[in-house]
TrEMBL record:
<keyword id="KW-0472">Membrane</keyword>
<feature type="transmembrane region" description="Helical">
    <location>
        <begin position="246"/>
        <end position="267"/>
    </location>
</feature>
<protein>
    <submittedName>
        <fullName>Putative copper resistance protein D</fullName>
    </submittedName>
</protein>
<feature type="transmembrane region" description="Helical">
    <location>
        <begin position="206"/>
        <end position="234"/>
    </location>
</feature>
<dbReference type="InterPro" id="IPR032694">
    <property type="entry name" value="CopC/D"/>
</dbReference>
<dbReference type="Pfam" id="PF05425">
    <property type="entry name" value="CopD"/>
</dbReference>
<keyword id="KW-1003">Cell membrane</keyword>
<dbReference type="Pfam" id="PF09678">
    <property type="entry name" value="Caa3_CtaG"/>
</dbReference>
<feature type="transmembrane region" description="Helical">
    <location>
        <begin position="378"/>
        <end position="398"/>
    </location>
</feature>
<feature type="domain" description="Copper resistance protein D">
    <location>
        <begin position="242"/>
        <end position="338"/>
    </location>
</feature>
<feature type="transmembrane region" description="Helical">
    <location>
        <begin position="448"/>
        <end position="467"/>
    </location>
</feature>
<keyword id="KW-1133">Transmembrane helix</keyword>
<feature type="transmembrane region" description="Helical">
    <location>
        <begin position="488"/>
        <end position="513"/>
    </location>
</feature>
<feature type="transmembrane region" description="Helical">
    <location>
        <begin position="145"/>
        <end position="169"/>
    </location>
</feature>
<feature type="transmembrane region" description="Helical">
    <location>
        <begin position="176"/>
        <end position="194"/>
    </location>
</feature>
<feature type="transmembrane region" description="Helical">
    <location>
        <begin position="525"/>
        <end position="549"/>
    </location>
</feature>
<feature type="transmembrane region" description="Helical">
    <location>
        <begin position="279"/>
        <end position="299"/>
    </location>
</feature>
Length: 684
């Protein structure tokens, strides 16, 4: 065992000890392992009380290491190849030797992640049933309750995805495959934490989104730092590049963790006094202090250790990163203890509607309340901020280097973002889960209006112009990844007009006329996924139809108009079908949230169908207008191009073959001369 490997094992042992110490202290101080056993109630035993948080902590740490190893292979280390080689094998991008080693390490980490998740599943069933873990393992309870418990189903999904990552990582050799495994591991992070306190919190809509954002930011931050520190300890190549890339990512992870963590604390502890007076609040306060310490570590890295890395002093980074990793591990231990500690109950018992919606029944609907009763949705608020920040930042970069960007495109993008805010943050979002008609209006805007403006903003073209090429030849930076995605086989398939139309049209019928709709309405994440699908399906269709950004294929303008007029009637048919239904959709959900001031559920559904039927006229008019303008401008560009060719041909000596118009006139002249010659021959 060499010196670098030994230092890695020492740092890992220190991080594990820090996590264990913080976990034990948090469990004891939070009271989750010292609760009195009430006679007559089931007791899972001390093994479960300690084993469940220990296995969950191991699952969190191993998941972060899996994500960090895949992140290092896919993004932090430069890609080899990718240049102009003599043959396809030389020019194809491939993982470097170190990156391939990290993918192999990710396979082992993912296998451990799956094992820890399986152990967590067993302990969770024992904890819920109040049975000792040995009874659960030897009896039939495990197989009986896994599918019926949300936590059990979530952990089974984690186990399956982690096993798939572990197996596929064995054969992964390309950057695209490593990136795909990274995406799969990122998805596997979410099910377990989203079925905890966040799903049952009073403000569960905000809490659920906050937890998802929190976990998605913590894993690459913690895992990425651990892998970069190991890379430094082993003194491998490309450390300054790797550390500099990680530092940029870590800054955004720090911001996301801070914002999401604050949102989660406010959702569970609306009164600041509870930070001091409750066990949950005190643990949350300790986590906030640890987070502040990590912020100081990050500042020190950016200002002190990165310059020393550039001066070829890797040990300075290694020692500091080892301490920071231990603090991160301790923070994750505190987080597990916090998850095992019950938050303080609400001061007032919530109504059945509040339990389902996360807020009380609003007053009777009217236009003023649709505009003024704002309903904060964290997911779409973050989405709008990110999309707006990236777009306007790219525009400023272009203008900063003297390049122009059409104001109309910026206005179109802004209108798209405003339309998202109008239906996800206002009273529309508050009434949409209660009234099908309002939900349908929200759906139509996100599916048929917002995407038009976003597509007209030409975000892909802007990104390709604003992003700088990778500094290292053959490497893949954001610009190269975007280009690779645009030329990928997947995008080629989904952007085919037939495929995009099927997704845009028939997903309507597949969602609303199956049990999927009610399932999505009952689950906040399902509701978010439904609205994101509306937005993405509309963006895909109008991207193909309007063709502002680069795409694998371009339809001629007559074909675009034909596609539009063939597609839009299906939305009218959908609206007519809703109006003619004799039974309400998602009846169980709408009976549970039926407002006392509303009309009948079936009548409201018929109103929603009428909205779907009539709304299609608005995007049709906008798209026809845009296509007409595009067609006219394209003809003008073609005419100017022909004029320029004619001018160049005249200046170069009048060679007809250099000018399409001159060549066309020459062909006409030859035909006329041929006709005259034939006429003279017949007369003679």
């Amino acid at each position: 065992m060499n010196r670098g490997t030994l230092s890695i094992w020492r740092a890992a042992a220190a991080a594990a000890a820090a996590a264990a110490a913080a976990l034990v202290a948090g469990l004891v101080l939070g009271g989750s392992v010292t609760e009195k056993v009430i006679p007559g109630l089931g007791d899972p035993g001390a093994l479960t009380r300690w084993g469940l948080p220990a296995s969950r902590a191991a699952m969190n740490l191993l998941s972060a290491l899996t994500v960090g190893a895949l992140l290092a292979a896919a993004a932090l280390l430069p890609v080899e190849g990718g240049g102009r080689g003599r043959n396809a094998r030389d020019s194809a991008p491939r993982l470097s030797k170190d990156a391939a080693g990290y993918v192999a390490a990710a396979s082992w980490f993912a296998a451990g992640w799956a094992a820890a998740a399986a152990a967590t599943l067993v302990f969770t069933v024992a904890d819920v049933l109040g049975e000792p873990v040995q009874n659960v393992v030897t009896g039939s309870e495990l197989s009986s309750y896994v599918g019926s418990l949300p936590q059990g189903t979530a952990l089974m999904i984690v186990v399956l995805l982690a096993v798939v990552v572990a197996l596929l990582a064995r054969t992964t050799t390309t950057p695209a495959a490593a990136f795909g495994l990274l995406a799969m591991a990122g998805i596997a992070l979410l099910p377990a934490p989203l079925t905890g306190h966040s799903a049952s919190a009073a403000n569960h809509a905000i809490a659920t989104t906050g937890v998802a954002l929190h976990v998605a930011a913590v894993a690459p931050w913690v895992g990425g730092l651990a892998v970069v520190a190991a890379h430094a300890a082993l003194r491998r190549d490309k450390l300054p590049v790797m550390a500099e890339r990680f530092s940029r990512m870590a800054l955004w992870c720090f911001v996301a963790v801070g914002v999401s963590g604050m949102v989660n604390v406010i959702a569970r502890l609306p009164d600041p006094v509870e930070l001091i007076e409750t066990n949950y609040g005190r643990l949350a306060l300790a986590k906030i202090i640890a987070f502040a310490a990590l912020g100081w570590f990050g500042w020190w890295h950016r200002t002190r250790t990165l310059p020393r890395l550039a001066a070829r002093e890797p040990l300075a980074f290694t020692r500091f990163a080892a301490v920071e990793t231990a603090v991160m591990a301790a923070t994750m231990g505190l987080a597990v203890a916090l998850a095992r500690t019950a938050p303080p109950p609400p001061s007032e018992p919530g109504s059945a509607v509040r339990v389902l919606l996360g807020y009380d029944m609003p007053p009777e609907i009217n236009p003023v309340r649709l505009l003024t009763l704002w309903q904060f949705d964290l997911f779409f608020a973050v989405l709008v901020v990110v999309l707006g920040g990236l777009y306007y930042g790219a525009v400023l970069r272009l203008r900063g280097r003297g390049d122009a960007w059409p104001v109309g495109r910026t206005v179109a993008w802004t209108l798209g973002l405003v339309s998202i805010v109008a239906v996800t943050q206002t009273g529309v979002a508050k009434y949409a889960p209660i009234l099908f008609s309002v939900h349908m209006a929200q759906h139509m805007v996100l599916n048929m209006l917002t995407p038009i403006f976003l597509v007209m903003g030409a975000p892909v073209t802007l990104a390709l112009r604003a992003l700088r090429p990778a500094r290292i030849r053959g490497d893949r930076g954001p610009r190269e990844w975007l280009t690779a995605v645009l030329h990928s086989r997947y995008v080629t398939v989904v952007s085919h007009p037939a495929v995009a139309t099927i997704i845009f049209v028939f997903s309507l019928f597949a969602l609303y006329f199956t049990p999927l709709f009610e399932a999505a309405m009952r689950n906040h994440l399902g509701h978010i996924a439904m609205m994101v699908h509306f937005l993405a399906a509309g963006a895909l269709f109008f991207w193909v139809l309007l063709g502002v950004d680069p795409a694998p294929r371009k339809l001629p303008y007559p074909g675009r108009l034909l596609l539009l007029f063939v597609t839009m009637p299906f939305h009218a048919f959908f609206g007519i079908a809703l109006m003619n239904l004799s039974e309400a959709l998602a009846l169980g959900w709408y009976n549970a949230v039926d407002p006392p001031w509303g009309t009948t559920i079936l009548h409201d559904q018929q109103t929603g169908g009428a909205i779907a039927w009539a709304f299609g006229e608005v995007p049709t008019f906008i798209v026809v207008t845009v296509l007409a303008v595009q067609w006219y401008l394209d003809d003008q560009r073609q005419a100017r191009r022909q004029d320029r060719k004619a001018d160049r041909a005249a200046k170069s000596g009048g060679r007809p073959e250099d000018d399409e118009l001159a060549a066309y006139n020459a062909r006409l002249a030859k035909l006329a001369e041929h006709d005259r010659a034939e006429g003279q021959g017949r007369r003679t």
